[in-house]
Amino acid sequence: MQDIPDLLETLRRAPKILSQLVKAIPEDKLDVRRGEGFWTLAEHVSHLAHVQPMLLARFERFMHEDHPEFVPYLPSQSEEGPAAPPRMSMASALGQLTCYRERQLLLLEGADETAWKKTATHPEYESYSLYILARHVLMHDYWHMYRMEELWLSKDAYLTKLD
Predict the structure, then answer these.
(1) pLDDT in tens, 9-65
(2) Distance of alpha carbon 22 from its chain centroid, rounded?
(3) In this predicted model, what pLDDT tens digit does every residue of 127-142 receive, in sequence order?
(4) What secondary structure, in 3-state letters, does the chain show?
(5) Quick one: which of 42, 64, 105, 124 is 20 to 30 A from 23 by CA?
(6) How far apart are CA 40 and CA 46, in angstroms?
(7) Angle formed by the axes of helices 90-109 and 130-153, nearest 10°
(8) Which residues contact 149 (CB under 8 A, 6 or more apart)?
């Protein structure tokens, strides 16, 4: 856990990096669906905004509960798999992500070593802690940003197909 300062700094930078990525994408590309089951670029941005309140609530539970028990976050799950998130305007989505990220960082920056080591129960994971959740949020942000760049720039033959 010696990388906590780096983790926090990278979480802080993610909204700015995403904003610059979105700014670089031509408006007419934001709602292009590259194939069956693929999200649009705008849906990826909207998803990142939509999950922030849930993530803030999880961080808060780590701060206030001894051993929180979480349930999987499966928005719009159906028999066909997860539905695309509701589309937000890019300005609203980026604003929401930035606002919630600032609140998350305030909590995390105030966490002591005991809080960072606090564990929880989550049915999807063998191990779950505040540290793991913070790192997971970081990886989630950057996975979606990578996917957006791939969906925007990759030629069809090289596009990763997800099941």
Answers:
(1) 999 999 999 999 999 999 999 999 998 889 999 999 999 999 999 999 999 999 999
(2) 15
(3) 999 999 999 999 999 9
(4) CCCHHHHHHHHHHHHHHHHHHHHHCCHHHCCCCCCCCCCCHHHHHHHHHHCHHHHHHHHHHHHHCCCCECCCCCCCEECCEECCCCCCCHHHHHHHHHHHHHHHHHHHHCCCHHHHHCECECCCCCCCEHHHHHHHHHHHHHHHHHHHHHHHHCCHHHCCCCC
(5) 105
(6) 10
(7) 160
(8) 21
- The tens digit of pLDDT for each residue in 92-146 reads 999 999 999 999 999 999 999 999 999 999 999 999 999 999 999 999 999 999 9
Q: Go through the domains of the chain in sequence order and give each one's CATH number.
A: 4-29+36-72+87-158 (1.20.120.450)
Tokens standing for 114?
A: 């005991």
**pLDDT confidence of residue 77:** 56
Report residue 161 as tokens. Answer: 């197909």
Q: How is residue 140 written in tokens?
A: 């989630």
